[in-house]
Design brief:
Layout (H helix, E strand, L loop, with lengths): L6 H8 L3 H8 L8 H13 L6 H8 L4 E6 L5 H16 L3 E6 L4 H13 L4 E4 L9 H9 L5 E4 L9 E5 L1 H14 L5 E4 L6 H16 L9 E2 L5 H11 L6 E4 L2 H13 L9 E6 L12 E4 L2 H16 L7 E4 L2 E3 L9
Parallel strand pairs: 1-2, 1-3, 3-4, 4-5, 5-11, 6-7, 6-8, 8-9, 9-10
Antiparallel strand pairs: 10-12
Helix pairs in contact: 1-2, 1-3, 5-12, 8-9, 10-11
């Protein structure tokens, strides 16, 4: 086994002090000749020297590591968001520690405590569904954090912190309005979890569009889901027995379950039922029918979240709440009835 290369061993080869090596390798001002500086750098490269990041972080109080807490990496939206945030981190030399919580409140709490104890410089947090059932406790935990953090995608009302998300009510309103413009009035809705802000606001947008067009809200047309594949599959099974002509599905993972149910039962989209979804991340994976969907530009969300956290890493302490506008992407899953 080769001996570990240290500042001391480089200093010995270059015949200089350890502090001189440290100053050169950290590109700090020092009274060392250009020739000796080049010699030190050459020795370090030839020896394949790697700095002790843990030791450096203890001195500088900067680890160059950020944390990301995400509720469901199997969800295409969150896996794409994770990739986007990681890409932004890499550009500035940050590593990213990622913890998947499976939408659990207890896992959220454990992840926040673990990452903050590991001395990460800051956190990106996408709260799990269960955390919305414990709003008071999760707010207390976040309020006591001593590192910068940003809530991404899933926001918290009446809580002062950095948050960036898309306008969920507007997105759902656009989707259901589009169905109405195409002649649909019997519109089913597969909701998300009942306590999650995104889900509540998307349902609010659904209701807003119906009321604005004097369409009565029929409770039989509304089925609870869970933002997951099986929830969409089972909800479609319930809804399809009603006299609906279209379904608004509150996210793409449930839309995937919905489409699978319809395909299995040979129900044609859009000829027999129209579908409109939310997230617009399925287009890479579906053959044939492409679902009209509300797009939340994930690269923009990731960049906004990163920029917001970076500002706070640079000691800008004013909290910001950034609401982005989603866009409806028309595909071929909606039939025009009039």
């Amino acid at each position: 086994m080769s001996q570990k290369v240290t500042l001391k061993s480089i200093a010995k080869k270059a015949n200089v002090s350890i502090s001189a090596v440290s100053l050169v390798l950290n590109n700090k001002p020092c009274r060392i000749s250009k020739e000796k500086r080049e010699e030190i750098i050459k020795i370090a490269k030839k020896s394949n020297y790697r700095p002790n990041l843990i030791a450096r972080s203890l001195v500088t109080n900067i680890s160059k590591i950020l944390g990301l807490i995400v509720p469901d990496l199997e969800n295409l939206f969150f896996s794409s968001l994770t990739k986007g945030i990681e890409s932004n981190c890499k550009k500035d030399g940050y590593s990213l520690m990622i913890i998947n919580t499976n939408d659990s409140y207890h896992e959220d709490c454990k992840a926040i405590s673990l990452l903050s104890s590991r001395k990460v410089d800051g956190l990106f947090i996408v709260l799990g569904q269960e955390s919305y059932r414990h709003k008071k406790k999760i707010k207390e935990l976040l309020a006591n954090l001593n590192i910068p953090f940003v809530l991404v995608d899933r926001n918290l009302d009446n809580f002062e912190c950095n948050q960036v998300f898309y306008d969920n009510e507007l997105g759902a309103y656009k989707a259901v309005s589009y169905l109405i413009q195409n002649g649909h009035s019997k519109i089913g809705c597969i909701k998300g979890p009942d306590k999650v802000n995104n889900s509540i606001l998307r349902f609010k947008g659904y209701c807003h569009a119906l009321k604005e067009n004097n369409i009565k809200i029929n409770k039989k047309y509304i089925v609870d889901g869970d933002f997951r594949y099986l929830g969409g599959f089972n909800a479609t099974k319930t809804l399809i027995s009603e006299d609906i002509t279209a379904i608004f599905v509150s996210n793409d993972m449930m839309a995937l379950g919905c489409m699978n149910y319809l395909i299995r039962h040979k129900i044609s989209v859009p000829d027999e039922i129209s579908i409109i979804s939310y997230d617009n991340v399925l287009y890479r994976y579906l053959l044939g029918n492409e679902i009209t969907s509300v797009a939340q530009d994930i690269p923009i969300l990731a960049k906004k979240a990163y920029d917001l956290l970076k500002e706070n890493l640079n000691n800008i302490t004013k909290n910001q709440i950034i609401s982005l506008s989603p866009v409806l992407i028309e595909k071929n899953s909606v039939q025009k009835l009039r």
